[in-house]
Design goal:
Elements lengths: L1 E4 L17 H8 L3 E4 L1 H5 L8 E4 L3 H5 L4 E4 L6 H17 L4 E4 L10 E3 L7 E3 L3 H8 L3 E4 H8 L1
Parallel strand pairs: 1-2, 1-5, 5-8
Antiparallel strand pairs: 3-4, 6-7
Helix pairs in contact: 4-5
């Protein structure tokens, strides 16, 4: 069973109220081979919401207490991101997810790239908070690009 970012299945849950539809992922959901999740909504955010980025590190650093997630206005929302990560982990365990496909670049879901915390569109190598937690717990987490390249 796959666990996939809700936005990749076409749900309008991204911070700006849009989606990042990948028709192959939506098909998996329709065929009941995948379950959708949005760690940010599970953490308590609404759609739309202010953009957020990880400051002073990546998701690993957030989990270790050495970095934080802040909104563009400067509000610290780290605890909500951690809450969403643990809620996503619970879903992954419940459905016995074998692969988790999450939206690249997100402060929650990025599995190899995230924005650098300056809100200037610059990306750096790193995991989002949810990706970092799921990887720590032994789950295979990949981006939508890796999914397409490895499964199609």
């Amino acid at each position: 069973m796959f666990l996939v970012s809700s936005c990749l299945a076409g749900l309008n849950v991204r911070y700006n109220g849009t989606h990042s539809l990948d028709n192959r992922i939506r098909k998996l959901v329709e065929e009941k081979k995948a379950v959708t999740t949005c760690p940010e909504l599970l953490g308590g955010f609404q759609t739309p919401r202010e953009p957020a980025e990880i400051v002073d590190g990546d998701g690993e650093d957030v989990l270790d207490g050495n970095a934080k997630v802040v909104e563009k206005s400067g509000k610290d929302v780290t605890e909500l991101y951690i809450k969403g990560a643990y809620a996503t982990l619970a879903i992954a365990k419940k459905i016995n997810a074998t692969i988790v496909v999450l939206k690249e670049d997100s402060p929650s879901c990025g599995s190899s790239m995230i924005y650098n915390g300056e809100f200037k569109g610059k990306k750096v190598v790193g995991n989002g908070v949810t990706s970092a937690l799921l990887k720590r717990k032994g789950l295979r987490v990949i981006s939508e690009e890796q999914f397409v390249n490895n499964f199609f």
